[in-house]
Design goal:
The protein has 5 helices and 7 strands; from the N terminus they run H-H-E-E-H-E-E-E-E-E-H-H. By secondary structure, it is of the alpha+beta class. Strands 1, 2, 3, 4, 5, 6 and 7 form a 7-stranded mixed beta sheet that branches. A hairpin with a 2-residue loop joins strand 4 and strand 5. It starts with a helix and ends in a 15-residue tail after the last helix.
Length: 165
C-alpha cells in the first residue's frame, strides 16, 4: 500500500480513537473536505468536526473506538472495512462490519463516502432513514452551535489554527 495512504489512515484511526488531540485533524483533512453521506453532500472540515462531536456526545455507546480491519486501495482512494466498539450498560459491544471510502490528495483526506447504515451501532436503527438522519444532524448541529455560543472555548480544535486561516 502507498505509505501516504497508510499514514493518513493511521492518523484518522488515532483521531477517531482519541489517541491524538483533535487539533491534529487539520493535518489529516483538507479544509475543503467533501463528505458524501446518505445522499447528503457537505463541504468543509467543520462538518467533519460536527459529525465527530455528534457521535461522541449523542451516541448510545460509551468509550467509542474504531478498528480498521481491511483496506482496499484503488489509485488515490481507499475503501476501509471497519468495526465500531465500545461499552453499553457497562458491557463491551462490537458492531457489524461498516465501510467507508476515502480519497487522499497531497497527503490529506479530501473526500469521504459514507452511509447512515455505518452509524446504526452508534445511534440506533432509526438513523437508516434519511429524514431521521437529517433531523439528527440539524438538531445536533444546532445544539453544538448553541453550546459553543453559551460556553465558548478559547481555542477549540474545530477552529483553524493560525497557519490555516
Amino acid at each position: 500500500m502507498n505509505s501516504q495512504l497508510e499514514d493518513r489512515l493511521d492518523s484518522l484511526q488515532d483521531l477517531l480513537n482519541g489517541e491524538v488531540e483533535m487539533s491534529q485533524a487539520w493535518q489529516c483533512f483538507d479544509r475543503d473536505l467533501l463528505i458524501h453521506a446518505g445522499g447528503m453532500n457537505v463541504r468543509g472540515i467543520q462538518h467533519w468536526f460536527t459529525w465527530f462531536r455528534l457521535i461522541k456526545r449523542f451516541g448510545r455507546v460509551d468509550d467509542l473506538q474504531v478498528d480498521f480491519e481491511e483496506l482496499t486501495v484503488q489509485g488515490d482512494q481507499v475503501e476501509v472495512a471497519m468495526r465500531w466498539r465500545g461499552t453499553r450498560a457497562e458491557r463491551p459491544v462490537v458492531s457489524n462490519v461498516a465501510s467507508a471510502k476515502y480519497r487522499i490528495s497531497e497527503g490529506k483526506i479530501v473526500e469521504i463516502w459514507t452511509q447512515p447504515a455505518n452509524y446504526v451501532f452508534v445511534f440506533g436503527t432509526a438513523i437508516r432513514y434519511r429524514p431521521v438522519a437529517v433531523c439528527l444532524w440539524l438538531l445536533g448541529w444546532s445544539y453544538l452551535r448553541l453550546a459553543d455560543w453559551l460556553r465558548p472555548e478559547p481555542n477549540p480544535p474545530w477552529k483553524p489554527p493560525p497557519e490555516y486561516r
